[in-house]
Design brief:
CATH superfamily: Domain of unknown function DUF1254
Strand content: 25-35%
Number of helices: 3
CATH class: Mainly Beta
Helix content: 25-40%
Number of domains: 1
Largest sheet: 4 strands, antiparallel
Number of strands: 8
Structural class: alpha+beta
Length: 186
């Protein structure tokens, strides 16, 4: 084999190795990174959760970084959903004039459901989240909307706008405290 052919083969082999490593790193990053991030989020929310299972973190400041780029004009409430124990009922009745939202995230950080003040049109939120493809099992309470989660674990994040005078902050605080996440019997 000529020196030129040998060099070409080494170059091709090296290129293929670099390409294979790059593809492997990319695939692992795309698959693993969201799961690692959400694992930390679940642990943080669980550590802040009170007896109701809902975490009510303190008001965001310029130094806050428990979530990415928190808004100092929003109050947050969160709970970790673990459907291994059964469906979870999520309820909230913010009764506030102004913006609020409730978003559901999968274990890979995908936002798969959201409802806000305009969509709720002044009505309370009543959701039952179950595993996708799981047997229906258990009755869905009257008036509740049943949703199928794309993952067994997830996060519920409520945001309430609290900009303005102290009364607005007090109303927003009361609104975020209406969030409840309860595991239902199977």
């Amino acid at each position: 084999m000529s020196p030129r052919a040998s060099a070409a083969r080494r170059w091709l082999r090296g290129t293929l190795v670099v390409l294979a490593v790059a593809v492997a790193v990319h695939v692992l990053s795309v698959w693993a990174l969201p799961r690692l991030i959400m694992g930390r989020v679940f642990a943080g929310a669980a550590s802040l959760a009170g007896p109701t299972g809902v975490a009510l973190p303190p008001r965001a400041t310029g130094a806050s970084r428990t979530i990415v780029m928190p808004s100092p004009d929003l109050l947050y409430a969160a709970c970790v959903v673990d459907l291994a124990r059964g469906p979870v009922r999520i309820t909230a009745d913010p009764r506030i004039d102004g913006y609020w939202s409730i978003a559901l995230y999968s274990s890979t950080s995908d936002n798969w459901f959201a409802v806000n003040d305009r969509q709720a049109d002044g009505k309370p939120v009543d959701l039952v989240v179950a595993e996708r493809g799981a047997a229906r099992g258990g009755a869905t309470p009257a008036g509740a909307r049943r949703l199928e989660s794309p993952s067994r674990r997830g996060l519920v994040l409520m945001r309430v706008l609290a900009a303005g005078p102290p009364e607005a902050w007090a109303q927003a605080e009361a609104a975020r405290r209406t969030l409840a996440c309860t595991t239902l019997p199977r």
